[in-house]
Amino acid sequence: MKEPSDLSKALEIILKNSALEQSNGSSHNGHGNPPIVAYGEEASPEGEMHLRDYWKTIRKRLWLIIGLALIVGSVTALRQARQPDIYQARARVQVGTQTYSPALGASRGESFYPENGYMEPEYFNTQVQILTSPTLLRRVAKNLDLEHNRTFLDGRVENRSTWRSLLTMFGFSQKQAEAPKNQNVLPDVNSSPAFASAGFNADDPAEVERLTPYAESLQGLVDVEQVKKTYLIDLRATHTDPVVATKVVNAMADAFALWNMEVKTKTNTVAGSYLQKRIAELQSQIRSGEEQLVNYAQSHEILSLDASQNTVVERLAGLNKELLEAENDRGLAEAAFRTSKLPGATEASAEVSDKQIAELKTRLGELRQKRAQLLLTDTEESPEVKDATQQIATLEKQLADTRGSAKQIITTNLEVNYRKAVEREKTLRDSFNKQRGETVAQNQAAINYNILKQEIETNKGLLAGLMQRSKENDVTMAGTPNNIHVVDYAAIPKGPVGPRRMQAVTLAMMLATAFGIALALFLEYLDDTVKDSRDIESGLRLPSLAVIPIAGKSTQRFFPISRALQRTNGNGASPELLINGTGSSVQAEAYKHLRTSILLSTAGRPPKTLLVTSSVPAEGKTTTVVNTATVLAQTGAQVLIIDADMRRPRLHQVLDMSNDDGLSAILSSEVSEADVLSKIRKYQDSNVYLLSSGAIPPNPAELLGSTQMKRLLEIVGESFNYVVIDSPPIASFTDGVLISSLVDGVLLVVHGGKTSRQVVKRARQMLQEIGAKIIGVVLNKAELNAGNDYYYHYGYKGYYSRADERSSQSESSSITVVPK
Description:
Layout: H1 4-24, H2 51-60, H3 62-82, E1 87-95, H4 121-131, H5 134-144, H6 150-154, H7 162-169, H8 193-197, H9 205-221, E2 222-226, E3 232-239, H10 242-264, H11 266-299, H12 311-340, H13 347-353, H14 355-377, H15 383-478, E4 484-488, H16 501-526, H17 533-539, E5 544-549, H18 554-558, H19 560-565, H20 585-599, E6 609-614, H21 621-633, E7 639-643, H22 651-654, H23 663-667, H24 673-678, E8 681-682, E9 688-691, H25 700-704, H26 707-719, E10 722-726, H27 735-740, E11 745-751, H28 757-769, E12 774-782, H29 790-800, H30 808-812
Parallel strand pairs: 5-12, 6-10, 6-11, 7-9, 7-10, 11-12
Antiparallel strand pairs: 1-3, 1-4, 2-3, 8-9
C-alpha cells in the first residue's frame, strides 16, 4: 500500500476526470452509456433459502452425510456385536384375598389387609413396590450369595465371537441356544425352612451396607408388572446368564411369599421369640435361685425355721432370765453397800455378826455392875474401884476397837458383793446381747431365705404361664394362611431377548443421518463463500457472466504427484493457457461463454476496454485475463493485454515474454504513440498482444491514476479491438479502483468456494462509489459437482465426456468481430 499522500493524489485525479466527463456530457468511450445499475434488485432477499436450496446443500455434502452414517452405523454395529446376549426369565405370583382361621378365633375385623385385593389398586401397587424394595432385594442377594457369584458380578459371557455376532445380527447366521449346565431352581418357600433361616439380618447395619450394592444391581435387572384384571403379578429378570436370571426371579418370588408370611405372622413371631426368650431366662433364674437358696442356708446355718426347734432362741431366753436375776441381785447388793456407808448403819449388824463384841459387852456390864457395888462401899480412890474402872476402860477400848473392825469387815463384804453383782450382770448382759444379735441375724437370714424361696416359687409360676402361652402362639402361627403363592416358577430361557442390535444400528444410522444433514446445513450456513452463480446474482446482486470450472480432475487436485503434472497445460505451455492447450473442453467452453457474455453485456457496443480484477489475491484473475483475451482473439479481433499489476506482474511469465520495457516506462514519461506501440509484443502466431508491466515502480498507484494512463488507453483503443487490463486485488491496493474509472467495464473475478461474500461486497462497494461500470462477475475455479452448477455439469462436462472437442476455429466463425 502507498502512503496517504499518494492515495489522495490518485483520488484527486479520479474526481477531476469524473468532473470533466460530466461537463462534456459523455463517458470515456464516447458512447454515452449510462452507468450500470445494481443487478438483481428484484431478487429474493439475501439469505432466504428454498427447499431446493436445502436439497442442493444435502447433495453437495452427500458424502459427508453418508460417511457419517456409515461410520456411526459401523461403530454401533461393532459395539452391539461385542455386547453380550441378554436373557429374560419370568415368574408369576398370585396375590389372593385375605383369609382367616375360625379355629384360631380370628375375625374379619382383625385383618389388616383388604379381603379383596382386586378392588384395592393401592394394595396391588404396594405389593409391586415391595417386590422391588431394597430390603427384599438384599434378602435375595443374601440367599443367592451374589457377593461371591462371579457370573452375576461380571455380567458378561466369555469367549464371544464378534464376527459371529455380526453375522447373526444381519441374519447370515442363527444363534444356537445352549442348555445351561446348572439348572437349580429355588423351591417354594413354604416347603423350605432353610430358605427362611437364610435371610439376612435387617437390623445389622454392616450387613445392610455390604448388600446394598448388590440390591441396587438387582433393581436394574428386575421388572415387576401386574397382569391386568387378575390377581397375578409377573416378575422378570434380565441377565447375560440365563441361569442367573432364572435364579434371581425365582428367589424374588420365594422371598416375596416369605416376606408376606412374615408380615402376617410378625406379631406372633415377635411374641413367640419373646416368650422363648423369657422362658429360657426364667428357667435359668429358677436354677440359679435354688442353688443360691441352698448355699445361703448352709452359710447361715439355717436348719429349721420352727421356733420350738431353734436352740438359738432357747439360749436367748435363758440368758434373759439370768440377766433379770443378776440385775435384781446387783440392785440388792448396791442398796446394802450404800446403806453400810450411813452412820450407825453397820453397828447393829456388826454386834449381831461378831460374838466377841457380845462377850465384851457382857463382861463390860458385869464390871460396871461390880464397880457400882464397890462404890457403894468404897470410894473412887479405893484400889478395887480404880481397878474396876481401869478394867472397864480397857474393855470399852477393846469393845470400840472390835466394833470398828467388825464394821469395816461388813462394809468391805458388802462392797465385794456389790462388785460381784455388777460384774455378773455385765457378763450376763454381754452374753444376752450377743445371743440376741445372733438371734436377730438368724431371723434376718430366715427372712432373706424366705424371700429367695418366694422368688423361686414366683418364677416357677411365671414359667408355667409363659410355656402355656408359647404353645398357644405356636398353634396360632401354624394355622396362619399365606395369601401370596408362587403360581409359575421361571424356566431357564432358551434364547436371548436382547440387545436389539439391528434396531440400535438402524436408529444410530438414522440419528447420524439426521445429524449429518443438520451438520451439512450448519456448515452451509457458516460457509460465507461464493459457490455458484445464484450466490452472485442473489447475494451480491451482480450479473454472473460465466462459471469457470477448476482445471484438472479430482485426483489431480488432491494428490501431490498429480498436482506436479498440472504445472503445464498438457502442451508444455503455462497452465493458465487453457484455451491453446489440450485441457478439458469444459474450461474452453466456459471461457467462450464468458466471451459471449462480455460482448452482450452492454447495449449498443461491447466494452472496448476491460479491467479484470479481484477482491483478494489468488483468485485467478491473471488466468482469466489470458484466456479471455485468447477467446476474444479467436473471433479475429486484435486484443491487447496490459499487465497493470505492477505489484506482482506475471503476464510476461505466462506468455513467455520479456519484461524489460513496459507500462511503467510509458506512464513515467511523455512518449509518443509510436513509442507506445513499439513496446507492445505479439504472442506467437495469434491476435493476442501484450504490454507488460515493465520495471516495478515505487509509486504504481500514482502512475495508474495519471493522465498518461488515460492517454495510453486512448492510443491503444485506436489500434486494437479490445484492451484487457490485469490489475492488483482491489481489497489490498487502490490500483484497480483507479483504473476502473478509466475503462468501459470491470470484470470481477471470484474464487468459487473460497472468497467470502463480504469481501466481494466490499469490493463492489468500492467500485460503485467511484462510478465504475461492473459488467459482471466470473466465478473461477468452481467445483462442478452434483450440488453446484447444473448447466455446466450436465451440459458441458457430460457432453464433452462423450464427444470430441470442437475446433476453436469453427467456433470463432459464429462470433461477430468488432472492427477497430
